[in-house]
Each structure stands twice: as structure tokens, then as C-alpha cells.
Amino acid sequence: MKAPRGVGGPLGFLSAWGAVVAGLAVGAVVVWTLVAGPVLFSPGALNALSNGRTLGGVGTHAELCARCEACHTMPWSGQTMGSRCVACHTEVRTQISSGVGLHARIAGTTAAPSCRGCHTDHTGPRGVVTYFDHSKLAFTLTGAHRAIACDLCHGNAHTIAEFRSTPRTCFGCHAKNDRHRGTFGRQCDQCHNTSTWTNARFDHSIFPTNHGSQERVPTCKTCHPIDVSRYTCFGCHAHTPSNVVGEHEGQTLQQLQNCIRCHQGGRTEGGG
Amino acid sequence: MAAVSGVYLFVYRGLGALPAASSLFGHGLGTLGVVLMLATETAYSVRKQLPTATWGTNAAWLRFHMVTGLVGPYMVLLHTSMQFRGLAAATTVLMGAVVVSGVIGRYLYTAVPRTQLGPERDALATWHAVHVPLTWALFTFAFMHGLVALYYGALQR
Q1: Which residues, at least 6 apart from A12, have a Cβ–Cβ distance to it below 8 Å?
Q2: Which residue, of B80, B96, B115, is where some domain finishes?
Q3: A13 to chain B: which residues are within 8 Å by CB?
Q4: A41/B51 touch (CB, cutoff 8 Å), yes or no
Q5: What is the ipTM of this complex?
Q6: Residue A122 Ramachandran class (φ > 0 left, ψ -120 to 50 alpha, else beta)
Q7: CA A51 to chain centre
């Protein structure tokens, strides 16, 4: 062992003393591994979310936290991590071997499935373990769609046909969210984006609030006294029920309240 | 350091969260940080051992060593995504110790005249006897961390 140089020369870094310390550091890690186990190298906690099933004797990956070898293989073992995955996830193995289902198309072979192409772990007890690159498909995920669980859109889909049957329109999934009760149609993205419902940009030009005049712009309450899902033309100008009936004398009006059915542009003449 | 912070903040705002240590950006920060620390340390040490060399003065290399000795660890700290566990946590602690001892050494170095003999020069030698082994331990831990991450994160299939 060489002591650090003192007076009379540069203080050296590349010394036997340094090599000894490096060796001690390696020894410390080895001892630490023997005492604490290989969890010393863990990059994060395993997923603790359960889907109610027991696979490979455990309900969640978190139960395997001290058994690295359950998923991680040694280079000389002849196994891959993917083969360890399908040892428990037998339904995926069945999909691959039978050639039926999503995994049959994208997950390689049963001997060496390419699970890591889409799945991971060590992202925390409630972390995301699937990061399927949805941008490679025709339906690109944007906004809030990027952060939600797959099954919110895909349910329990497993086969290609089931995945293809996933609704592609806003209304296909969000009919239950329509607070306008169908009044504004089904093209939600005319006003809304995929980030949040509340930051909508409503373009009222589809029914001019001023009826084409630049002088009088009514407030929202003028036409929507209850909420924006409902409107009324009565109470403005000469739009009283009796006047409207008088104006349409000789016509058969089925829906006296629903002016926009005929006056879609807010014009005087029907259909305008 | 401001440039690194700027890029980091840009990525942070884009993601809405701290970039993960295992992401391409996170790995880039960690790798570049270590390369900076290692390259400057090696270059400075080699230059010191070659008094007749003409590629930069010792003083210039020491300044470079101090700058990259701060920027490198700063990048590694950002690489951690503020999560500390296991060997990676031990490596971060060691890195902090090396940086702190480096800062102490920088003031000790300027306080002790180069021609000074006696207790002051001995103090510098003693400091060096702490700073250098700490650095060796840090690089050893960092390499083990890197090798393990490389194997489990990329090579293992």
C-alpha cells in the first residue's frame, strides 16, 4: 500500500492506495448483498395492484419483492425474462402458442416472449406496468387518454377482433358524460379536447348569439335560463308563445319549443 | 449548470413530472454526469503526473476539474429523480461526500502556499488522503450501479 504523496510532488490519484479502496468498495457491496439480498439493486418497488387472481402462487408482483430470481434469470440458465413471465401468465402463453389473440401477433414465441417490449415493473406499488406504444396504431392517444388504464377503453379485450371493436368516436365511450343531453350533437371535439372536459372552446357561431347583428349580444342566461343543455327563444323580442303560434299560422307545428329544428342559423326563415 | 437546469426544466414541464431515472433523458443525465466526473478526474490526475506536458496548465485543469466536479454530480443528482434506494442511494451519498470534500479541498489548496512545508502542507496531504479514496469508492459504486442497470435494464431478455 502506497501512502499519499506529501511534500515534493503532485498528489496522486492513480495509486495503489486508490485500488485498495476500490477493492474495499466492491467487498462492501458483496457483503451488503449477502446481508440484505439482491434487493440492494432493485430500482423500485414492484406492482401491488391485484386483479383478484392468483398466478404462480402470488396475487401481485409485490409479493415477489425478495425473490428476484422469480423473474430475473441468470445468463447461463437458458431462460429469458419473457419465459419466466409466461410461466405464470399462462393465458398469454396459450395465446402465443395457439396463434389467437393480441399477444399472438406481438409477443414473439413461447420460448422467448418479448414481454419487455410493452411491459415493465419496479414502477412503484401503483405504477403503470404496460407502456404499449399506441402511436403505432391508427388511434393516437392524446391528452387524458394517455394516462388512463387500457381496460377503461378496451374492457377485457384479448383478441384482435375485441380490440378492433373498441369505439373510435368520442360519443362511443363518452355518451354517459354528455351533459348537454344530445343538444349539441355527438361531435364533442368541435368544442372539447382530450385533456379535460372543462376547458372547452365553444364556438357559438354555429348559432349566432346576436342573430347576425353586431350591436346586441345577449347573455348566456337569455337563451339558457336553466343550464346550457337547454335553450328557449321565448322571453326575447317578440318571441312569446302566442306570437310564435301567430307567426306560424297555417303550419302544423309539432315542437313549438324547438325553434332551432327549423331555424338552425337563427334566421327568420326556416332552415336559414 | 444553468444550461443543464434549463434543459431539465423544459423536459420537466413537458412531462408534468420529474423525468424518470430509467428514461432516455434520465439515463443520459446519469451517464453524461459520470463521464464528466471521470474524464476530468482522469485528465487532471494524468496531467499532474506529467510536469513536462504541454497540454494545458495544471491550474487550468484544476479549474476544469472543479467545474465539471460540480456539473457532473449535479447531472447525476437530476438523474436520481429524487429517489434514493439501495446501491444507487449509497452512490449518491458518496457523491455528495466527494463534492463536499472537494469544496473543502479547494479552499485548503488556495490557503496553503505551494512552497509551504510543515503542518499546512501535511493538512493538504491528509485532505487528499480522504478525497481520493472517497472518489475511488464513488467510481467503484457508480460503475457497479451502471453495470447492474445495463444488465437488468437493457441486456437481459
Answers
A1: A4, A5, B45, B48, B49, B132
A2: B80
A3: 41, 44-45, 48, 132, 135
A4: no
A5: 0.77
A6: left
A7: 18
Task: Determine, for residues A26 and B124 on separate chains, whether the beta-carbon distance falls below 8 Å.
Answer: no
Q: Cβ of B156 under 8 Å from any chain A Cβ?
A: yes
Domain count, chain B: 2
pLDDT tens for chain B, 157 residues long, are 888 888 888 888 877 777 877 778 888 999 999 999 888 778 887 887 777 777 777 788 888 888 888 999 999 999 988 888 888 999 999 999 999 999 998 888 877 776 666 777 778 888 888 888 899 999 999 999 999 888 887 787 7
Domain membership of residue B97 as a residue range: 84-157
Please judge whether B132 and A4 are an interchain contact, meaning their C-beta atoms are less than 8 angstroms apart: yes
Write down the pTM of the prediction.
0.64
Pair (B133, B121) in one structural domain? yes
Torsion of CA A255, A259, A264, A267, to 10 degrees: 140
Chain B partners within 8 Å of A72 (Cβ): 152, 156
| Domain final position from B32, B47, B80 | B80
Nearest to B148 among A7, A41, A82 (CB): A41
Which amino acid makes up residue A250? G
Whether B90 and B127 share a structural domain: yes
Residues B119 and B133 in one domain: yes
